[in-house]
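Structure (tokenized):
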């Protein structure tokens, strides 16, 4: 009960932070290009025709293929309370490869849709 009370008391602070910064971002550890693949990104959409919330999450598809190849699937969802267009939700997959564990990741392929580890 006490945890619920403190959560309720801190909610205005969290909402003020969100309103001031327009996004909240949680990062992955040990993924290629972590800035392009946030663990969780909540951001406000405030455009002329669209208003709402954008929720972006990414994860390593298939549990990680190996230490030298991996695919990261990113899901972007929109909760729009004002919009002039249809569903804008999207999934995309970025696959990376490297020669060994010490070398840098190189983008091997990128495509729209869910990741297929066999591709």
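Design, position by position:
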């Amino acid at each position: 009960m006490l945890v619920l009370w403190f959560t309720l008391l801190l909610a205005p602070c969290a909402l003020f932070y969100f309103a001031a910064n327009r996004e909240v971002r949680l990062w992955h550890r040990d993924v290629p290009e972590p800035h392009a693949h946030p663990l969780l990104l909540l951001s406000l959409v405030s455009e002329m025709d669209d208003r709402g919330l954008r929720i972006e999450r990414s994860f390593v598809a298939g549990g990680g293929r190996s230490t030298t190849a991996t695919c990261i699937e990113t899901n972007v969802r929109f909760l729009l309370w004002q919009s002039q267009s249809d569903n804008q939700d999207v999934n995309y997959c970025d696959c990376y490869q490297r020669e060994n564990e010490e070398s840098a990741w190189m983008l091997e392929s990128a495509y729209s849709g869910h990741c297929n580890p066999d591709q």
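Reviewer-requested clarification: The first strand starts at residue 23 and ends at 26. The chain has a mean pLDDT of 87.
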